[in-house]
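Posting for a labmate who doesn't have an account.
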Amino acid sequence: MDITSELFRGVRAHGSLFGSSTLSPPWSLHFVDGPPLTLCTVLTGAGWILPDGHPPERLGAHDTVVVRGPSTFTFVDDPATTVEPLVCSEECSTPEQGGTRHRLGWHEPGEDDAAGGRTTLVVGAYPLSSEISGRLLDSLPVVLRVPAGGDGDPVLDHLAAEVARDEPGQQVVLDRLLDWMLVCTLRTWLDGPGRRPPAWWSAQKDPVVGETLRLLHAEPATPWTVAALARRSGVSRSTLAKRFTELLGEPPLTYLTHWRITLAADLLIEEPSATVASIARTVGYTDPFAFSVAFRRVRGTTPSTYRRTTGAR
């Protein structure tokens, strides 16, 4: 288990695809829901993303932008357009409503989307709520753009073909394609020239620290010591401790504590019938009291209080 796969674990579209709109200028679509993460990609044509409080971003064919909530945005044919914005939310999903449309498999047979200046936009939203996903969100800017020509281009070919269909099971296919596109987009952006990626992204590629991270994420409940981690990673204790702290900003066992508490926070909400003691054992604490002390030190509240207050939101 690598850390990137673990952080992406909670990033799953599930019937949350806003849709595909084929637009003839002038147009202005205002997306108002502001979910934690929204992916916008242009299949054909071009347009402009106007994120609230951020500079405009032009999108051509196969360009993609990711907007981190709660920011909302507008998609227009031209930043100077004076056309009245059409408000789009999760309910804008049928042709009759004129907004983002593809939840019901809408398509105009025989229409050449690229002709006459028409633009086809695909927008997908992710209602992320897990603590694990929060680590990923916290590492992203409010708006990131990836130009055409990256790893996601083959996915867009599949996406364009599926958008033009109306088949049973289509929503599942679109959701998975959207997940694939999002992962490709974020990987391309994180590895892009001039980026300052989060520490966990760079550290996992280090031959020493990367192996240690894989161990911690694959076996978080193991009673790890620095000596055991160093032995499994093939280095001395001092080398591991120094290198890990340099790249991650904290010692290995401190990192492990924070990761265990992150896992536990999700389990407290996702498994309401599980006892605090059972969750403590799942993440590596044999003593529920020691788990509660660690949880309070990291989160500022007890596991029971966290479950009660967070689960009620």
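Reply:
Got it, the structure tokens are right above this. The chain has two domains: 3-190, 202-311.
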